[in-house]
């Protein structure tokens, strides 16, 4: 349980974020047009690259990552760090190949972009899928992780504590719009990273450094926990080739085609800010392996050497330590009073930033991609009102999903399992749409429909009949197989129903892979091509070291 000092720090932080969020959102809208939808949903397209990069990172990194990456570090070592470092490659794709079309076409949402490239049917389907995925992946799982933390630290009912935090988050998000979200996310990123560095140092110090940790792993015959790239047949079910084949399918959807993430880019001041922002985020994404995953591995070696008591966590169905609460256990056992409050603030930052980003994106898509379709004459005031109502409904629906999602042994595995069955058709239509002139509107619509149904069917078989062949396929490889199937479907239907480009769609695909590199760029280190090359080199070197 928290001491009064730590509790006071946590409460003051929550109230401070609420005040800042309301102030930033209301001030921005007063300085601009009071009821302009563009100001509310896209911050009037005024965002610069530092805010975009920090907001992308904050929206991505939530309490889910703090809790579940530490859990994965405890259970399997650095392996799940692949989800962090592989993100660098997809953020480069976003910066080089997708951002120019998003900015030049002036779209408000990604479903809007899909309509310009294909047709209205594709937009409708993506809007529905995007809202559903935002509710499940970005809000409900974040609530679950936050609930586990708050229950452990405060001793409160998981649902009561999560509802209170999420209602506070909803207030400044719904009132202030994207400007409030981005400003608070920038603050929350700094707090979150500070907290993560503190717990990382505490675990490192308690263990006595890197060598004592490796000595414990060596004595247990578990040095492979330091490896990011595992051999074929590895017990984790995630050998190296599944990472390079499966992750891009998940990553391209998440970083390049998911409204909750990309909305920060759509609010960019200009194309260069929109391109450099994701690359800045790519460099920050190097850190989580060392400050989120590695502390979990330190915790494992601390337990093995008798320096961390995990008896309060209990055991799971397989008689292993129930590692879901390992992060909060580290906080309470490794840190002094006062610093515990800072770490709780960091955890709350993750929860609040994820929920606020998702709510803003849901309200944007419901307003522009659903309501405005049937009420094209709707005023900005009506669009904003519908957006606020939809955000409230999404929050309530997410709460209802918590008991179901809590059945996953690992939160991180649960998220990626669901993404693996949602992402393939969306990744397919975006990739082929941007890189292939022949991708037709009819083929995109059928690929989204058939691919989504296939994903649901495979997911259901996997859960109902886990002993079948499908049940034994790792989720990363399943994502790759479903993606390949979707590519075959779209290519085949593109020949059956040949493309008929409009004046707009004819400008929304690259004529050659080198064309996107011809755009105007800043001089020196700020050049997006230089930054992309540097990010590739740094990530490649890290993979070589931790191979």
From TrEMBL:
Keyword Transmembrane helix: yes
Main location class: membrane
Membrane topology: Multi-pass membrane protein
Stretches that traverse the bilayer: 6-26, 47-71, 83-103, 124-150, 156-175, 187-204, 238-257, 278-303, 339-362, 383-405, 411-434, 446-465, 477-497, 528-546
GO CC term (a single one): plasma membrane
Keywords in alphabetical order: Membrane, Transmembrane, Transmembrane helix
Entry's family note: Belongs to the sodium:solute symporter (SSF) (TC 2.A.21) family.
Name of the protein: Solute:Na+ symporter, SSS family
């Amino acid at each position: 349980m928290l001491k009064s000092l730590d509790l006071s720090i946590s409460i003051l932080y929550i109230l401070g974020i609420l005040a800042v969020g309301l102030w930033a959102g209301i001030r921005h809208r007063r300085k601009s047009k009071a009821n302009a939808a563009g100001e509310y949903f896209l911050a009037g397209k005024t965002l610069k690259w530092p805010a975009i990069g920090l907001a992308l990172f904050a929206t991505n990194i939530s309490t889910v990552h703090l809790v579940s990456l530490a859990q994965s570090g405890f259970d399997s070592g650095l392996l799940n760090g692949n989800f962090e470092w592989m993100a660098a490659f997809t953020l480069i794709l976003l910066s080089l190949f997708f951002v120019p079309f998003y900015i030049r076409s002036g779209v408000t949402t990604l479903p809007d972009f899909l309509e310009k490239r294909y047709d209205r049917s594709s937009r409708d389907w993506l809007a529905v899928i995007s809202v559903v995925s935002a509710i499940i992946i970005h809000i409900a799982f974040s609530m679950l992780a936050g609930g586990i933390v708050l229950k452990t630290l405060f001793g409160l009912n998981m649902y009561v504590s999560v509802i209170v935090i999420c209602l506070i988050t909803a207030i400044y998000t719904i009132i202030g719009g994207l400007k409030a979200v981005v400003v608070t996310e920038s603050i929350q990123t700094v707090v979150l990273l500070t907290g993560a560095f503190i717990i990382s140092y505490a675990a490192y110090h308690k263990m006595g450094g890197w060598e004592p940790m490796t000595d414990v792993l060596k004595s247990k015959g578990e040095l492979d926990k330091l490896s990011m790239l595992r051999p074929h047949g590895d017990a984790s079910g995630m050998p190296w080739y599944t990472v390079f084949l499966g992750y891009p399918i998940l990553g391209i959807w998440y970083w390049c085609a998911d409204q909750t993430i990309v909305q920060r880019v759509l609010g960019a001041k200009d194309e260069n800010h929109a391109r450099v922002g994701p690359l800045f985020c790519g460099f920050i994404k190097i850190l989580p392996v060392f400050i989120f995953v590695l502390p979990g591995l330190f915790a494992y070696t601390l337990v093995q050497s008798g320096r961390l008591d995990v008896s309060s966590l209990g055991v799971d169905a397989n008689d292993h330590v129930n590692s879901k609460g390992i992060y909060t256990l580290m906080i309470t056992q490794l840190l002094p009073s006062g610093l515990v409050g800072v770490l709780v603030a960091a955890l709350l930052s993750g929860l609040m930033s994820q929920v606020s980003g998702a709510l803003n994106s849901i309200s944007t898509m419901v307003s522009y991609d659903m309501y405005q379709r049937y009420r094209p004459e709707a005023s900005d005031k009506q669009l904003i009102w519908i957006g606020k109502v939809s955000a409230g409904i999404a929050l309530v629906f997410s709460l209802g999903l918590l008991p179901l999602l809590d059945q996953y042994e690992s939160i991180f595995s649960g998220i990626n399992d669901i993404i693996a069955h949602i992402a393939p058709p969306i990744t397919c239509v975006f990739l082929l749409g941007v890189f292939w002139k022949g991708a037709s509107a009819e083929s995109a619509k059928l690929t989204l429909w058939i691919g989504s149904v296939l994903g649901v069917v495979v997911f259901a078989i996997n859960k109902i009949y886990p002993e079948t062949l499908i049940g034994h396929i790792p989720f990363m490889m399943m994502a790759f197989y479903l993606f390949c199937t979707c590519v075959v479907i779209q290519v085949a239907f593109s020949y059956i129903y040949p493309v008929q480009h409009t004046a707009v769609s004819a400008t929304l695909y690259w004529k050659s892979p080198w064309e996107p590199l011809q755009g105007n760029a800043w001089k020196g280190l700020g050049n997006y091509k230089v930054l992309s090359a540097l990010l590739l080199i740094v990530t490649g070197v890290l993979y070589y070291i931790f191979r």
